């Protein structure tokens, strides 16, 4: 039952949305203290705060107070241990207030304020509590004041002067001596046109200061008073023409703005328009409006045409810029490690790569940059690269949960040509997470408004606007270029607060103005006036099509033979923009214009200049390779493509690496030695397998080269085929291939890997018992060559082997070795997996206290790291124990949230496993129809994924649930399938459990003979060491039931004694939970008269 504690006013506890009538003052005081300090507090400390007196007396008071709370809603407000007390599963308005402030939601934060922290409460506590409470109340009052100021400032920035005035007046009513707020009120009165009120405010403040403090207002306030008294307008920062043309006001977008308001927060809002219409400007202004003056930010990701072949091209540029600005410093280590796959500056990436975890890391990085309430604006989605396209749906699904918003822009005609981008956007639209708006060019009234706002004129300009509209059809970029052109020509000038042309006094429609017929001609005429060096510079930057850092730009200009001062000239003229990431063209239309003016020979020369500049600064290999190839330098391009492929093949850009390998194969010189060509081909093939591709086009040529080169190359080819067999699921075919690789192995490294692959293949598809010999040999090989990571993996597999055989001593020793090595390696992921293995082992053995303790610890650590996948793994351990000790509401709520999260990020395997274990816990709780629904969904998904290792568990759980529901036919079919699966996998302990359950199904169908046969098979396969209630006790119990009467009496008593022993070894509270398990109750309630 959900609890909510409201403390920013008269205290109130809510349960399921209803107020709890009792408000024990000591409980309120204690809860408030715990809510503020966080974590747990020693009992003695709390007792000293809440009561005066000797230590024993105050501790007794605390115990009595907690006892009085029993069986009330207040009991769940606290979590207790023998020495500490903490806050239980209760939400507070303190957390909500701080969260709203952090995202700049001032109104939402203020709505939680009901009069102050613990308003009206006299806790009757010690002097120490009052020493804490008084400054704490003042602290929350200051936070409240900050929220009020944040609201007022955001309203003023949005032009909501009357609303902002009311907020400032409310603040001054509480403290009229605040000078900043007094200035704001005067300023707002002037904005509202009420000069007399502004003057009255100034005089009242001056008198108040003199009477109460004997002071005069500050010089700044006095200057403001003079402006008010003399009726002077508020100072407005003057803008030059160049700045006005670079940052024009946003006009004519009220309907589009309203559309954004109506759809905000519902997914990806995509603004569509042709180049120059103003989609990016509208998106930026709206994002700025949403972010306001709070701590959140807007991140703009610029996608570029040249980046379509480079994975995460625009995103990588934005992330690297954020990293240099230290905006990723507070990113959790878990996500920093994952992000290192894309940003090597962050350190070594994790050894086990997981696409969904990497995507989550990207989302968390964006969240760290923009912060909750921030906006990610992704420009030019029509040029999305393949990796960003794959990531985009994940980002859209996760953004709302992470508290930031998404805006995008695209050109319709370019989007129409990009079929993969259209398909991805359609996929997002089907989920109702994509909303598109087609922007129109400015209409004539909007153009008039734009000209007036830019020129400072209050009226006029209609005829001039009409002339511009005829030439530009309302394209904002073209309008601004025309204005720049007219200013450059001297045909437009700014004088006396207005714009003028030579024709103002006599023209009727400004047809006299010589406007260029197209934006292209306007741009080219302006470029010609800048000199002959301007065009080649812009053409080179257009060909590069990525931000040029100053050092790279300087090197490029040296190769072009032009002075560096030209960069400044082009920037001041509005052709270039200098961002923190480097020099870029100001607009796509500039790029299109200068590229159209380029011959093929000039293009190749410019590509060569860019490549030379990139080599000098050790620039990115993918870009270097592309420019070398475009320059016609085939040999150099071959080397660059090969180096690029090798640098990318093991990370999230492996698909991009394949394209570099493909280009390297095309450009490979005929003189390249065969062994180098073979290396290139097999690296490409290994990358394909890592990506899950089953077709290996390089296979035939590799085989030919391997036959001529020798055993080393033939070994690599067979090892590759073994990997392909594992990846494709054709494991039986892979076993002889791995054996051939082992035969060809010449070095300890080769032997170790061939043996490890062979052992894994034998376990997956051959004879699991045969894996022992190669597994042991691989461990020795890895140990001899010092490969601790592979040795640890092999030892973990070996510990699992011993566990399946029931050799617990060997399992324990091997597990300890693996754990020790993993700890030395500081491999957190492997350590977590080993600890999760222990959860399962202890659970099967019936050591529920240990199993539960480790599962809870894993869950807590995972939550602290924010690592969802680790959370889901830990929840599976908790659910296993819940199937024995009962499903608590808190755990169930957590699991349900986790399943939503897993579905949201597309973690279907994790979702299926959670559903299977959740369904099992529901079955034990007697909620059979709910269990059936979860288990059927899990089973369906596991079948689709081919996840046979966990399929048997889902079949067993569903079969038992159907048995409890009385659906005997379907129960028998399902359990029989689980028996077949476990037998095929030689998992005999699981086979015994499924056979026993199937025997019970036949017994309930009155087929005792079949039940006796099946239970006898189960009894023969039993694992005597597996003493958990769903293993040996279950097999013995069902065998006893099948035999009936006296024949089964001894087995029944043995089963019952096992259950009592399990309870006896548990702490009392856990023992009682086990004895309350409905299957345990059934078993213990039976007598020998079965």
Automatic annotation (TrEMBL):
TPR repeats lie at residues 145-178. PROSITE patterns: TPR (PS50005). The lineage of its organism: Bacteria, Thermotogati, Deinococcota, Deinococci, Thermales. Keywords: TPR repeat. Residues 92-229 form the Bacterial transcriptional activator domain. It comes from the Bacteria. InterPro entries: AAA_16, AfsR-DnrI-RedD_regulator, BTAD, P-loop_NTPase, TPR-like_helical_dom_sf, TPR_rpt, WH-like_DNA-bd_sf. This is Bacterial transcriptional activator domain-containing protein. SUPFAM superfamilies: P-loop containing nucleoside triphosphate hydrolases, TPR-like.
């Amino acid at each position: 039952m959900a609890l909510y504690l409201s403390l920013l006013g008269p205290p109130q506890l809510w349960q399921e949305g209803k107020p709890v009538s009792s408000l024990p003052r000591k409980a309120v005081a204690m809860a408030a203290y715990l809510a503020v300090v966080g974590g747990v507090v020693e009992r003695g400390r709390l007792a000293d705060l809440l009561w005066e007196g000797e230590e024993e007396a105050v501790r007794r008071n605390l115990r009595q107070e907690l006892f009085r709370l029993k069986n009330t809603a207040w009991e769940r407000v606290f979590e207790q241990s023998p020495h500490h007390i903490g806050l239980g599963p209760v939400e507070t308005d303190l957390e909500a207030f701080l969260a709203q402030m952090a995202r700049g939601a001032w109104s939402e934060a203020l709505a939680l304020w009901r009069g102050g922290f613990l308003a009206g409460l006299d806790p009757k506590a010690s002097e120490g509590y009052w020493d804490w409470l008084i400054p704490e109340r003042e602290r929350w009052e200051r936070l409240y004041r900050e929220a009020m100021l944040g609201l007022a400032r955001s309203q003023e920035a949005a032009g909501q002067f009357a609303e902002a005035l009311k907020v400032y007046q409310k603040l001054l009513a509480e403290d009229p001596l605040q000078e900043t707020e007094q200035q704001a009120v005067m300023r707002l009165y002037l904005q509202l046109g009420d000069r007399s009120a502004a003057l009255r405010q100034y005089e009242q403040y001056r008198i108040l200061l003199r009477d109460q403090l004997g002071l005069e207002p500050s010089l700044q306030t006095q200057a403001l008073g003079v402006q008010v008294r003399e009726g002077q307008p508020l100072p407005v920062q003057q803008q030059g023409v160049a700045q006005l043309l670079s940052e024009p006001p946003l006009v004519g977008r009220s309907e589009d703005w309203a559309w954004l308001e109506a759809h905000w927060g519902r997914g990806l809002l995509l603004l569509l328009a042709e180049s120059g219409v103003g989609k990016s400007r509208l998106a930026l202004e709206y994002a700025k409006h949403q972010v306001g003056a709070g701590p959140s930010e807007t991140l703009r990701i610029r996608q570029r045409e040249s980046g379509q072949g480079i994975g995460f091209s625009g995103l990588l540029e934005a992330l690297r810029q954020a990293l240099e600005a230290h905006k990723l410093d507070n990113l959790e280590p878990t996500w920093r490690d994952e992000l290192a796959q894309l940003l090597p500056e962050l350190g070594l990436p994790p050894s086990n790569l997981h696409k969904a975890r990497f995507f989550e890391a990207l989302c968390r990085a964006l969240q760290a940059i923009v912060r909750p309430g921030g906006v990610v604006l992704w420009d030019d989605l029509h040029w999305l690269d393949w990796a960003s396209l794959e990531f985009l749906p994940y980002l859209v699904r996760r953004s709302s949960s992470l508290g930031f918003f998404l805006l995008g822009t695209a050109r319709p005609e370019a989007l129409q040509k990009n079929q993969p981008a259209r398909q991805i956007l359609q996929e997002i639209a089907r989920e109702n997470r994509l909303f598109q708006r087609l922007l129109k060019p400015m209409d004539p009234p909007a153009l008039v408004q734009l000209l007036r706002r830019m020129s400072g004129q209050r009226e006029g300009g209609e005829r001039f606007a009409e002339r511009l509209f005829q030439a530009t059809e309302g394209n904002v970029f073209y309008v601004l270029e025309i204005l720049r052109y007219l200013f450059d020509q001297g045909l437009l000038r700014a004088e006396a607060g207005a714009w003028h042309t030579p024709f103002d006094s006599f023209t009727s429609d400004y047809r006299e103005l010589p406007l260029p017929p197209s934006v292209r001609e306007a741009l080219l005429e302006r470029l010609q006036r800048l000199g002959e060096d301007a065009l080649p510079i812009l053409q080179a930057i257009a060909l590069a099509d990525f931000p040029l850092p100053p050092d790279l730009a300087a090197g490029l200009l040296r190769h072009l033979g032009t002075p560096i001062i030209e960069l400044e000239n082009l920037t001041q003229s509005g052709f270039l923009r200098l961002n923190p990431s480097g020099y870029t063209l100001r607009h796509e239309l500039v790029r299109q214009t200068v590229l159209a003016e380029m011959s093929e020979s000039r293009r190749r020369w410019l590509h060569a200049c860019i490549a030379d500049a990139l080599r000098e600064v050790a620039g990115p290999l993918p870009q270097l390779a592309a420019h070398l190839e475009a320059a016609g330098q085939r040999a150099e391009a071959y080397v660059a493509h090969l180096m690029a492929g090798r640098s990318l093949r093991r990370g999230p850009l492996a698909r991009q690496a394949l394209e570099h390998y493909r280009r390297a194969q095309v450009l490979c010189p005929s003189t390249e030695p065969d062994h180098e060509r073979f290396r290139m081909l097999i690296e490409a093939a290994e990358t394909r397998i890592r990506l899950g591709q089953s077709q290996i086009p390089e296979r035939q040529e590799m085989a030919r080269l391997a036959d001529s080169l020798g055993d080393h190359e033939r070994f690599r080819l067979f090892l590759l085929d073994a990997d392909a067999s594992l990846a494709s699921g054709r494991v039986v075919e892979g076993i002889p291939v791995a054996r051939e690789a082992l035969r060809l192995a010449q070095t300890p490294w080769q032997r170790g890997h061939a043996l490890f692959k062979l052992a894994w293949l034998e376990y997956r598809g051959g004879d699991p018992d045969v894996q022992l010999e190669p597994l042991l040999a691989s461990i020795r090989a890895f140990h001899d060559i010092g490969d601790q990571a592979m040795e640890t993996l092999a030892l973990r597999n070996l510990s699992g082997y011993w566990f399946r055989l029931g050799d617990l001593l060997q399992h324990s020793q091997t597990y300890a070795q693996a754990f020790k090595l993993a700890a030395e390696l500081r491999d957190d992921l492997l350590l977590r997996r080993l600890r999760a293995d222990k959860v399962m082992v202890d659970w099967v053995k019936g050591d529920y206290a240990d199993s539960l303790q480790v599962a809870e610890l894993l869950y807590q650590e995972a939550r602290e790291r924010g690592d969802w996948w680790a959370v889901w793994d830990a929840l599976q351990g908790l659910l296993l124990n819940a199937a024995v000790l009962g499903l608590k509401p808190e755990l169930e709520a957590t699991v349900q949230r986790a399943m939503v999260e897993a579905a949201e990020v597309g973690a279907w395997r994790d979702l299926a496993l959670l559903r299977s274990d959740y369904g099992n816990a529901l079955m034990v709780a007697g909620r059979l129809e709910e269990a059936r629904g979860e288990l059927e969904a899990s089973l369906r998904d596991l079948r689709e994924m081919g996840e046979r290792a966990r399929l048997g568990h889902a079949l067993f759980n569903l079969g038992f649930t159907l048995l409890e529901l009385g659906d005997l036919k379907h129960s028998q079919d399902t359990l029989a399938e689980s028996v077949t699966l476990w037998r095929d996998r030689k998992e005999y302990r699981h086979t015994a459990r499924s056979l026993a359950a199937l025997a019970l199904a036949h017994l309930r169908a009155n087929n005792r003979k079949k039940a006796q046969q099946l239970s006898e098979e189960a009894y023969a396969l039993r694992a005597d060491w597996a003493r958990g209630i769903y293993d040996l006790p279950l097999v013995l119990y069902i065998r006893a039931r099948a035999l009936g009467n006296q024949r089964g009496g001894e087995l029944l008593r043995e089963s019952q004694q096992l259950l009592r022993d399990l309870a006896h070894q548990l702490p009392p509270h856990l023992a009682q939970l086990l004895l309350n398990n409905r299957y345990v109750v059934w078993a213990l309630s039976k007598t020998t008269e079965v």
